[in-house]
Amino acid sequence: MSGFRTFLGSTFIFLLVEYCLVGCDITDGNAEHQKREHSLTKPYQGVGSQWDFWGSTLVTSSYVRLTPDERSKQGSIWNTVPCYLKDWEMHVQFKVHGSGKKNLHGDGIAVWYTKDRLHPGPVFGNQDQFHGLAIFLDTFRNDLHGMDRSFPFISAMVNNGTVSYDHGKDGRSSELGGCSADIRNRDFETYLAIRYSRGRLTVMVDVDDKNEWKECIDIGGVRLPTGYFFGASAATGDLSDNHDIISMKLYQLMVDHTQEEENLDWTKIEPSVSFFRSPKGILGFQNNIDDPTGNFRGTALTGWKVFLLLLCALLGIIVCAVVGAVVFQKRQERNKRFY
User: Fold this and answer.
1) Is residue 110 within 8 Å of residue 232, measured between CB atoms?
2) 3-class SS at 327?
3) Rounded CA gap, 52 and 44, in Å?
4) 22, 25, 28, 29: CA torsion to nearest 10
5) Per-residue pLDDT tens digits for 306-322
6) Share of the chain above pLDDT 90, in %
7) 141: left (phi over 0), alpha (psi -120 to 50) or beta
């Protein structure tokens, strides 16, 4: 039994180490890996050198207000330094608030990683048919027939410059996935995390004041080049809101790549997604195929979920082994009493 107990202890230590390694995959905001040239933080001293702004954007000591709570406003703020990180995670602290009551506010915020910057347009204050990635925090329902989801709604889109964002359908035809999130008029801080690593795009939110990330989007097969720019924009129409950016912090993810990947010219990659349901087959996506990660049918089995399943299975085996060993020992002791 002593040998078995030693094995059991070693097994738990191994599992603990593995769990820590998995947990470390999610950045906790370690300043060591924060890239300050791509980060926007109070008191916004980089605005004017590392960050440019346009339109109705107002920079104060406490927030960057992209639009005031007024009709027909557009504003944006853009990093002037192109990002050459292959694996990164952007944390955005934001606030959407205004005097409009339920369903009487709009339009929303977009967070961008794109080839071009400071190009005003109809897509939440930025240009249509962009190159790169957009995360939309849409607060107004345009498609009155799409009642299967509640707003505000967060969605993602990858574009190679050939696809237009369909406002009338709230971008459904080009979205990679999304989730509903109650982000308006909250009394506490709200956060968005966007991670791109090894071709996988993950979007997480923290809008319930629980100090924990909730998965919103998780999809593989995403190809994004390096050398693009980060930015944020917002717009109002007949309805309005204050759209505030409190901070944008970019972190480098420490990921090992193969020699083939290292030799690849990442600046020449065309933005694309390997699998995507689409009636038009745009961006080289396969027609009418749901994301194989399960993004459209339910939550995908990400790495840590697979680990937890394996952990539960292993613990179950260990428990059965312990119970069996105890039962066996009891029987041996009982048999000895009969001799």
Assistant:
1) yes
2) helix
3) 11
4) 170
5) 667 778 778 878 877 77
6) 64
7) beta
The average pLDDT across 43-47 equals 88
pLDDT of amino acid 317: 86
- Whether the CB-CB separation of 220 and 244 falls below 8 Å is answered with no
Q: In this predicted structure, what is the pLDDT of residue 102?
A: 73
Query: Mean of the per-residue pLDDT values for the chain?
Result: 82
d(CA 103, CA 141): 8
What CA–CA distance (Å, rounded) separates 165 from 168? 9
Contact 23, 210 (CB under 8 A): no
Q: Measured in whole angstroms, how far is the alpha carbon of residue 211 from the centre of its chain? A: 16
Q: Which residues contact 176 (CB under 8 A, 6 or more apart)?
A: 155, 156, 157, 158, 201, 217, 219, 222, 273, 276, 291, 295
CA-to-CA distance for 113 and 65, rounded, in angstroms? 20
Question: DSSP states of 167-189 as a string?
Answer: GGGTTGGG---EEE---BT-SS-
Element (H, E) at 332: helix 303-337
Q: How far apart are CA 175 and CA 324, in angstroms?
A: 52
CB 199 within 8 A of CB 148: no
Cis before 43? omega within 30 = yes
**Cβ 224 vs Cβ 274: under 8 Å:** no
pLDDT: is 158 or 285 the higher one? 158
pLDDT band at residue 148 using 50, 70 and 90 as cut-offs: confident
The set of residues, in sequence order, having a beta carbon less than 8 Å from that of 259 and lying 6+ positions away, is: none
